[in-house]
Amino acid sequence: MYNSAHEGLEFPSEEELATLRRVSDAIPWSAYMIATVELAERFSYYGASAVFVNFIQQPLPSGSVTGAGGPTGQSGALGKGQQMSTGLTTFYQFWSYICPIGGAYIADTYWGRYKTICWSVALAMLGHVIMIISAIPGIIGGQASVGLFILSLIVTGTGAGGFKSNISPLVAEQYQITKPFISTTKSGERVIVDPTMTTSRIYMYFYLFINIGALIGQICMVYAEKYVGFWLAYTLPTIVFFISPIFLWLGYGKYRTSPPTGSVLATALRVWRHAAKGRWSWNPVKCISQLTAADFWENAKPSKVVGEKPQWMTFDDNWVDELRRGVKACSVFAWFPIYWLCYNQLNNNLTSQAATMDTHGLPNDVLSNLDPFALIIFIPICDLVVYPAFARWGWKFTALKKIAFGFGTGAAAMVWAAVVQHYIYKTNPCGEYAGTCVDSDKSPLVSPLNVWIQTGSYVLLAFSEIFASITGLEYAFTKAPVNMRSLVMSMFLFTNSVSSALGEAFVSLSTDPLLVWNYTVVAILACVFGTLFWLSVRKLDQDEDKLNNLARGHFDHSEKE
What is the pTM of this model? Predict the structure, then answer.
């Protein structure tokens, strides 16, 4: 089933699919508009959260009514310590990435993606306003400040969750071609324009926009916090956030969207239950073997039903194949919580680590901006140089290979952090209690190590995001049935929430003198799970082209629940 965008295109033969070089297509202008909506939202999200660690962990500076530390002081507000800081920031991550499931269900079932995004933006803005109130002079530092701040995390996270599960599919939906086609380059070479590569490219630049917003937001807010106060560090992101509804309004009626199709999730569960009939066994080995057999989904296809079909079976065989592919994608995502465990160190422990080294006047939380800065540099390099070079050499750097590489570079980043932490303990005046080391005037005593030695961790984490995080977005979109894209995307985002829950178990290691163990354990887990991941998906990787080129399924959503 082809849409009008396929008219006049030449499609490749099996031989051409196997031999011709593959390239990506141009990115539609509407995708850049949606990426700008995301840029503004991420500016507000990361700009505000960049100062969370200091706001929670450090006490209100003596004589300050805004929390600003000034050129030589340490900014702070609540003074609740590193464990409370790690716990709350981890909760915020958890909440922001579990809410996408609700946002996805509402979008796929009732409102559609565009309307759900608009309401999510409004809710997130309300959360930002509450956050500003928690930081104004007279409230900041007191118990009311704590309560308002936690409430703002819940409200903002709810809005961000509904936004994330829908903006990511919406940006890729702007490209309408779904089948590879033949094109001729200026040099006369016949190539295959691959929609999957185009989707990958869309998400790379979507991620680039995310990190432009994150970089500018984080740097500006860190200095706003240090020299003016937390109220400004929370107000500026809220102002920039207003770009999102403006661009949503400008694109109204122009963005390509998929309509809601009723409770697809309920139908999907019925399909799975129907396919599982006769495959249960008290023998756990036999049961798992039968439920994961290659022909598991065949019995759920309408063409295989003998007699009258159930009333809920309002789809064709191709949609069952698409559902099977989406379930396989979710099984790939099941490995991601350990990867996010590496990445989430950037949001709390690495910021705290910077505060225990010589920053040469830089705010300790500005160093985390090396991650988006590296992404802004290396995303275009990968798109314009690295990936095309791999294609010319005939090496298929498939999505699953990229994800495996992402695990490896994430593990390497944690090894780097563990080594840095070891030398901080060796050189700090208080030894293994570097995070609480102060002189008689309560001024922090830090290691003489230059804070820029953290660079390696941030650059390696940036590469891991290019390989794993961006590819995860691509994989969720390309492998989901059209009417379940938000839901499958939310499953990918939910893995970050699971990781945040796992991170709560590591809070006890997020304090002196155990931080070397914290980074080391996370590095070992990422290495082991990355290896197991690749061993488990090697066969699936061989079917990449087949999965990407399934016939489009038909789903009739007129059936009432």
Answer: 0.84
